[in-house]
Each structure stands twice: as C-alpha cells, then as structure tokens.
Design brief:
This protein is an alpha/beta fold. The chain has eleven helices and 17 strands. The strands form two sheets. Strands 1, 2, 3, 4, 5, 6, 7, 8, 9, 10, 11 and 12 form a twelve-stranded mixed β-sheet that branches. Helix 1 packs across helix 6 (128-137) and helix 10 runs parallel beside helix 11.
Length: 345
C-alpha cells in the first residue's frame, strides 16, 4: 500500500488535505491523524470492514475495543444511550477534550468496533485537525493510537511514519501531541463510575464533577473482553525490557547504579527525571523532565521510549515515580510497558 503523507501547518490553509483524508474515511480507508492526546489511526466507526482494517494495520487483537470519536458533543446521543445524568455533566465540563466515556451503544455501532461488547467508549477531541476530519467525513471515527500494537504510542508525526507507512492510506502530520498520554477512560455504565484507564484528566479532576468516581484498583483483565483499550495486553513497550525500581530515592538510586555497572552481558540505560539525574553521572541516561512538572513528563514519556529504541539498549532501569494525580497515569503507562516488572528496595 502506498501511504500519502500530508504536512498540516494551518488547518484552514491546508483544508484540501483534510478534505482528501475525509473522503478516504468515507470510502472505507484508514487515516492516521493528530489529536491532543496521541496520534490516532482512524476509520469509519459505522463500517465493520473499516474496523477490521484498523485491527489488521496495527496487528491489534480483535478483542481489544476501539474508541469512537465525534466532532461535536451533541452527536453523543446518535451513537449511545445517555442513561446516566452525570454523563451530561462530564461532557459539558471535559468535552471537547481528553476524556472517553464508556456508555451503552446503539445498534448503529458495529460489534466489530466494540469487540462484541454492548458498550462503547466515546470521545470528542479538542484538536482542530481531528474535529475537522471527523466533521468533513460525516461519520464518527473509530481510532486507537496510531502505532503498531504493543509499541509506545505515537506523539510525533515521525513516530507514525515509522510504524504505519505502507499500512494506511493517509497520514496527516501536525507536530507534537499536547498531552502525550491517551485519554482517560471513565465507565459510567456502573455505579459508582470507574476509571478504566487513567489519563491527563485525573481522578481529582473528575471528583470535582461527581464524588461518585472510583480509581480502578486493577486496570487489567486476563480472560474477559476489556471495556477499554490498554487493560488486557502489554502496551506501550519499547524493544528493551523495563525494570521499575520502587523505594526510597537513595536506595533505589544505589540499586540502579549497582545493577547497571554489574550488568556486563546487556547494555543498560536509566530512565530518570531532572531532579535525580546527578545520581547517575557517568551512566547512559534518558531524562523525562522535572518532577515538579508532571505534564512535561507525560508529554515526553512515549517520545523518550522511542528515542531509546533507536539505540542498542537491552534493559531500561527506571525509578518508580510515586504520587497522586497525573503521576498515577504516568505510572500506569510505565507499568504496562514493563509488564509490571517491579523491584522493591
């Protein structure tokens, strides 16, 4: 397959490229496009064959449901049954934006999109290119992250090209993703509502709207079909294995230094933050940003993991970043990438 790549510098000036991509969606093709979270791999959410193409292009298991994207919050009632009064509150407060709401789907959404579930994750993105693409296509767009299944999500156009060039019809490129983490997924078909996947919108943010929200204690399932992406399989993983080291900062740093220096069989590097970088002087390090600026760490995470992939690193040691709010979302991604390989010191 020949992939057509368009650089979008101005959504108005470059509207013809977006209109071309919208026609591709209408005709059952696949388009990778920017959003405020990560890049998405989109197809017509009302077309079961388009859904099958998405799974095939990513190498994604078909029991991993797709999130459906709409261009306007008012379209939610076209595709879902809005049964919970809190749904409107969440939509009014967080849409357009990085929140996916799991609701009961209407029959117009094919089972192939939802992995056979009668629920669907619905989101209205805030990114102008994404909303224009959906609006001009005239259909909702089913879109997981635009990367090969299991790999770190794509937050730069170059990441998308690396993974999907030759696998999709069109790639729309427009710089870096703002947030760098996939959307928060909130299941409102249950009481209390449960965060299935943490994201940039945190439990603290959601609790300002409703006190009836639970942070999932275990965001993974082994045998059942998950209600949201990122729950069943290893995700976000670089080629090198990741070992998370949890404990007192001094002890964790000492353990990592000792392991890196003693590991003569494998090339090791350290995933660190600005405040701790001095602990690993002389070692191969990759800096995520400042602990005092968790949005910076979130925005850098997948890009740094992909940067490490360009080296011949075999193993990555990372300190466990404890904390509330956005740190829960960051560690959710790191733990998934590590396959929950955690060493306590």
């Amino acid at each position: 397959m020949k992939t057509e790549i368009f650089e979008i510098t101005d959504p108005v000036k470059d509207l013809p490229a977006i209109l071309y991509a919208a026609d591709v969606i209408k005709n059952g093709g696949l388009v990778a496009f920017p959003t405020e979270t990560v890049y998405g791999l989109g197809g017509n959410a009302l077309d079961e064959n388009a859904a099958k193409k998405i799974y095939s292009a990513k190498g994604r298991p078909s029991d991993n449901p797709l999130i459906v994207h709409i261009s306007d919050p008012d379209q939610a009632s076209l595709y879902t049954y809005i049964e919970d009064p809190s749904a409107k509150l969440y939509m009014d407060h967080f849409w357009p934006g990085p929140l996916t709401l799991v609701m009961n789907k209407k029959p117009v959404i094919p089972d192939q999109v939802t992995a056979g579930l009668q629920t669907v994750g619905l989101r209205c993105p805030s990114h102008q290119v994404a909303r224009t693409l959906i609006r001009e296509a005239g259909v909702p767009i089913a879109a997981p992250s635009a990367n090969l299944s299991g790999r770190p999500s794509t937050t730069e156009a170059s990441h998308v090209i690396d993974d999907l060039n030759g696998r999709v019809d069109v790639i729309l490129c427009q710089g870096s993703s703002v947030y760098g983490l996939e959307s928060t997924v909130l299941d409102i078909t249950v009481k209390p509502a449960v965060i299935l996947r943490p994201g940039f919108i945190t439990w603290e943010d959601l609790s300002c709207i409703s006190r009836d929200v639970l942070q999932s204690s275990d965001s993974s399932v082994k045998d059942d079909i998950p209600k949201a992406p990122g729950m069943k399989y290893r995700h976000y993983a670089p080629k090198a294995k990741i070992i998370l080291v949890r404990g007192d900062t001094d002890k964790a740093s000492e353990y990592i230094r000792r392991m890196v220096k003693s590991n003569t069989d494998e090339k090791a590097c350290v995933l660190t933050v600005n405040e701790c970088a001095h602990e690993f002087e002389g070692l191969c390090t990759f800096d995520l940003g400042c602990l005092s600026n968790p949005p910076q760490i979130a925005a850098n995470l997948f890009s740094v993991l992909r940067e490490i992939d360009k080296t011949d690193t075999d193993v990555i040691y990372s300190m466990y970043l404890s904390g509330k709010g956005l740190f829960i979302s960051i560690m959710n991604r790191l733990k998934k990438a590590a396959g929950d390989y955690i060493v306590d010191v």
